[in-house]
Task: inverse folding
């Protein structure tokens, strides 16, 4: 368990945890989205996703880190977002996130110390307390910071996932290479 007062610093210990990550798992409501769910009059559901997070996920995947989603709600919107981002490790409608993690590990075997997980609320603790790099988004439930190795500067749904992706790529020495295509001169 991290010390709450110090879990926003990129310490050598934290960077070592990020360097070891082979699989990043994400909650949806409150992490990939801002946690607000809107319902239309005809039963349609709306969520707000951040494009910074989406591009960070794509860059992280290109750098060799797999990304998956575990969410307690089931939504066609989440399936579409996952598909748009190339995420195939998707477990929806599962409140027991530890069992969902076991299901993901049957598809993508990975040691627990090589897993990062970003969460915001109590159901996420089942996974966060067992893996190598536990992240709580800045606007998470207060107790989450006691169990997180890192607290993001940004809120869930507002670039927190991008922040995590960038930290992992920096720690693994892949950030500059991932950024190169965007800063090369046009020829």
Result:
């Amino acid at each position: 368990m991290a010390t709450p007062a110090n879990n926003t610093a990129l310490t050598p210990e934290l960077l070592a945890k990020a360097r070891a990550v082979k699989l990043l798992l994400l909650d949806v409501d409150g992490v990939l989205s801002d946690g607000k769910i809107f319902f239309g009059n005809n039963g349609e559901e709306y969520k707000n996703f951040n494009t910074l997070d989406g591009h960070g996920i794509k860059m992280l995947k290109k750098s060799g880190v797999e990304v998956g989603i575990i969410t307690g709600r089931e939504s066609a919107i989440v399936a579409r977002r996952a598909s748009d981002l190339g995420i195939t490790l998707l477990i929806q409608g599962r409140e027991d996130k530890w069992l969902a993690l076991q299901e993901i590990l049957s598809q993508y075997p990975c040691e627990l110390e090589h897993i990062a997980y970003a969460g915001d609320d109590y159901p996420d603790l089942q996974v966060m307390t067992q893996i190598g790099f536990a992240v709580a988004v800045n606007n998470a439930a207060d107790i989450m910071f006691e169990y997180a190795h890192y607290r993001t500067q940004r809120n869930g749904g507002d670039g927190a996932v991008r922040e995590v992706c960038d930290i992992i790529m920096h720690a693994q020495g892949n950030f500059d290479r991932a950024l190169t295509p965007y800063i090369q001169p046009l020829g």
User: Anything to note?
Assistant: Confidence is low (pLDDT under 50) at residues 1-5. Residues 180 and 186 are 12 Å apart (CA to CA). DSSP finds nine helices and eight strands in the chain. Strands lie at 23-26, 38-39, 45-46, 66-70, 89-91, 115-119, 133-136, 150-151.
